[in-house]
Amino acid sequence: MSGPEPGGIQRVGLRPLGRTGRQVSELGLGCASYWARPGFPERRAREVFDAALACGITLFDTGGSYAGGEAERRLGRMIKASGVEPDDLIIATKAGTRSGNGNNNRGRIVRDFSPGGLIEQVNESLERLGLARISLLQLHGPEPADLTDDLLTALDRLRTEGKVELIGVNAHADVLEHAVDRAPFDILMPFVSVMKAHNAGLARRAAEAGQGVLAAEPLARMRFAPPLARWLTSGSGLWYLARAFSRRGNKPERRSRRCLRKALAAPGWTRAQLALAWVLAQPGISSAVFGTTHPEHVLELARACSRPLPDTAADAVAACHRRIHGDRA
What we know:
Helices cover 40% and strands 17% of the residues. By secondary structure, the chain is of the alpha/beta class. It has one domain (3-250, 271-310): TIM Barrel (Alpha-Beta Barrel), CATH 3.20.20. The strands form 4 sheets. An 8-stranded parallel β-barrel has the order 5-6-7-10-11-12-13-14, surrounded by 5 helices. β12, α8 and β13 form a beta-alpha-beta unit. It is globular and about 50 Å long.
């Protein structure tokens, strides 16, 4: 049950993770991007991690290719130092993309969905995380052609050997359509936000098939993050700001963004809280995974989990979707 702690910290609730028998916190912390970079002080990264634990967050999502493997190493150190039993958390990482080595590939992200490559990546992730088992292994951005029988057999083998508990896919909707109600995938991770409302239907179908659903980028690549003035005072804030607006999108997308920024307004709510509450209100969503470099941001979003999305905001968002997308919204 969610509720405020004596110190005023709002703890998030738990939701079923499909039919896996596990429960997961409504919010998940993305341990990637600027948070994982060696240039971002580990002390500050630890403050974000500790705030997540204090709020009752149990899902920590990372990947072997993030920050050249440093994301997993950093998360592993923090889990060990926290004293929390890893089995009490859901530590999710990704395979299929890895940091390239050698003169030609150094610093680049290399795709490798071969069965042997996948097994090698999992072993490397286990070592970097300092874990005996990965709670959730997700294929990172595969194409439908990558989902071969040999690859699926390798995934089953990793589960049988006890190296992986749950198996999932993090990809765009056209790929995830091939994984809905398909073994061995327990979890799907689509991109769901007010900007990607059409993916909510896929989330619902996956949930109806018994799969857990983690919403990626619920704040639409930070477009609906806290007020910009709070971000312009730090290197990480400028990095996230540049990331949010690196893709201006086509004219309908820009119109949609302007409409939604006006729609996400209600007394006592921030825009980020409303954007998150909209995602959590979609049927089938188990958890929404976000990233940040500010512990205050974690606390702000946690406070949104205990309140239903205001009807006025829900209606305004729906009106934007109808205006821009019509029946496809």
